[in-house]
């Protein structure tokens, strides 16, 4: 245990028993273990509770409380773990482009990490909803970069007048979808506090309007968006089921995402939104 983080408890949380040396092999193993164990989820936002991203709060919620979180939470915790293990980590912030119209400028609302290793720089990101990466990727331009799930690639691009990069995911033989754009400017706690406050409280934030949960397994991706529960295989083939009650949603959260809600949790996090989600899916 370091002075700041209980690594033993974290490793138990993600089921990791491998090396603790700050190597590329360790980074890959940790990235996969975390992404397949800790769900991406926004239940705290839906409950109207504050999303706390200081390290003690992240340990209490994710490690001790067996919860997940969104990017500022899970990537914030992951960056702290890596640093405690001796990795050289720079945290970055990006503008999400996933499913965003080309002419819409999105705000800086996604956190990820750049890890320096003898083999080069690697992007680590275990917090992007239903398409969360399951392995770090080398920071190389114009190359198809494999992960345990979909390949990724980086393209050079303009980011609000600055030289930057776009991360894309390969969703089919000739289909590359933009994920987010970013620069290499380092960011610190004050930057994430501001972005996290907006993302978790502003009425137009997607996390204030929709239930968004995701967790990959070694062979599938499982996602829950409002009342739509989807399981897809690594080839992208999947099935979607419409959940018809708050209890059904809670059962899926427990069975597939290891998120067990009390009666009070369901009343706070799901019931105020359920009829709206039903109406949305009906149209």
| Average pLDDT | 95
The strands making up the biggest β-sheet line up spatially as: 5-4-3-2-8-7-6
Main sheet characteristics: 7 strands, antiparallel
Helix-strand category: alpha+beta
Basic shape: globular
Q: What would you note in describing this structure?
A:
With 283 residues, the chain is α+β, with helices and mostly antiparallel strands. It has a domain at 208-282: Arylamine N-acetyltransferase (Arylamine N-acetyltransferase fold, 2-Layer Sandwich). 34% of the residues lie in helices and 27% in strands. The protein is built from 10 helices and 12 strands. A 7-stranded antiparallel sheet has the order 5-4-3-2-8-7-6. The chain has a 5-stranded antiparallel sheet with strand order 1-9-10-11-12, covered by helices on one side. Strand 3 and strand 4 (120-124) form a beta hairpin. It is globular and about 50 Å long. The mean pLDDT is 95.
How do you describe this structure in short?
The chain has 283 residues and is an alpha+beta fold. It has a domain at 208-282: Arylamine N-acetyltransferase fold.
């Amino acid at each position: 245990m370091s002075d700041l983080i209980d690594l033993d408890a974290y490793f138990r949380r993600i089921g990791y028993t491998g090396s603790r040396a700050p190597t590329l092999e360790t980074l890959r193993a940790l990235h996969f273990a975390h992404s397949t164990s800790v769900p991406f989820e926004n239940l705290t936002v839906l409950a109207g509770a504050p999303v706390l991203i200081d390290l003690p709060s992240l340990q209490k919620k994710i490690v001790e409380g067996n919860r997940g979180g969104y990017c500022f939470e899970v990537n914030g915790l992951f960056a702290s773990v890596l640093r405690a293990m001796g990795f050289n980590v720079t945290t970055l912030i990006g503008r999400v482009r996933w499913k965003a119209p080309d002419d819409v400028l999105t705000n800086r609302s996604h956190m990820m990490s750049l890890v320096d290793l003898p083999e080069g720089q690697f992007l680590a990101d275990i917090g992007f909803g239903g398409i969360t990466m399951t392995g770090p990727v080398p920071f190389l331009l114009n190359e198809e970069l494999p992960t345990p799930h979909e390949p990724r690639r980086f393209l050079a691009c303009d980011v609000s007048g600055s030289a930057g990069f776009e991360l894309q995911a390969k969703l089919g033989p000739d289909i590359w979808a933009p994920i987010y754009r970013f620069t290499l400017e380092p960011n610190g706690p004050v930057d994430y506090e501001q972005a996290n406050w907006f993302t978790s409280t502003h009425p137009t934030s997607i996390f204030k309007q929709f239930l968004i949960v995701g967790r990959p397994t070694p062979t599938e991706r499982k996602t829950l968006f409002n009342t739509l529960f989807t399981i897809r295989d690594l080839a992208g083939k999947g099935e979607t089921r419409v959940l018809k009650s708050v209890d059904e949603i809670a059962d899926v959260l427990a069975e597939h995402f290891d998120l067990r809600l009390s009666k009070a949790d369901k009343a706070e996090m799901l019931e105020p939104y359920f009829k709206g989600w039903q109406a949305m899916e009906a149209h």
